[in-house]
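Hi everyone,

Forwarding the result from last night's run.
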Amino acid sequence: MEYRFLGRSGLKVSVLSFGAATFGGGNEFFKAWGSTQADEARRMVDLCLDSGINLFDTANGYSNGLAEEILGKAIHGKREQLLISTKVFFPMAEGPNDLGTSRQHILAQVDASLKRLGTDRIDIYHMHAFDAFTPVEETLDTLNTLVHSGKVRYIACSNFSGWHLMKSLAVADRYGWTRYVAHQVYYSLIGRDYEWELMPLGIDQGLGALVWSPLGWGRLTGKIRRGQPLPANSRLHKTSAEGPPVEDEYLYRVVDAIDEIAKETGKSVPQIALNWLLHRPTVSSIILGARNEEQLKQNLAAFGWNLTPEQIATLDQASETSLAYPYWHQRGTSFRNPPAV
């Protein structure tokens, strides 16, 4: 396994990490992702540790805390071998203060997450989304206190806009508070918007990318192709409306290119899509999700080999999309404003 620094921090994380959103299946949305229970979760954790994975990602909002609880059981007795990443933002109850990143909600939820996970600290604590109703100063002051208390080791964010992130970093710098070291982002061969604003920001400010849904919300599994119906067990049947929009023809064009490279390499569609991400700037770790052990083993095989520069160029070209403003205009000033990739 390869290990990379998480942004400009001194923390090293495995380039592949495990996402526990499939643990629990506590409601219809998460059942579509998976419903792994404790016994299989333990086997999957052991499989990850044996492969060299040291980072396990979850969130308090995954199945309303059930995913954290099952992960806690699965890592029992192995805590010192791994890093835990979890998150706060989404509603955990119906009260007016049971959501967001206010001091009230963060302090209540960090203790609840620690209890469910069965641990005394969270290694990477993410703000799962930006809270426009809570002052950035309140959120960051609270997080700084948690770091100094030892309950949290590093802080990160997820799904922020560029200005959300830059404002947060500026406020942290102004007061000398702990900075975000990572940004958990959606990024895939069929979802390259991250490259427009957030990747250059990550390079400039030293933030590592932790990539979620690297297979494009289940579209790059190798089971979706032109002229074929969705597989019976695809999560897209129930969750496509909540995920990133992808035009059919664009998806098929990218999958066609992957299929050609699959013939050359003997690798699967998901393995190629994951390996492509390992070559991208700022990427510290790719979060793998898996419904079962066999799927996990297949995804782990994305590491240990490399696409050629020519194959990467083929995938880059096939997955290119029209840029929004001002990014298309900035291409004309690349002599003073070079692109991140």
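The radius of gyration is 20 Å.

Cheers,
N.
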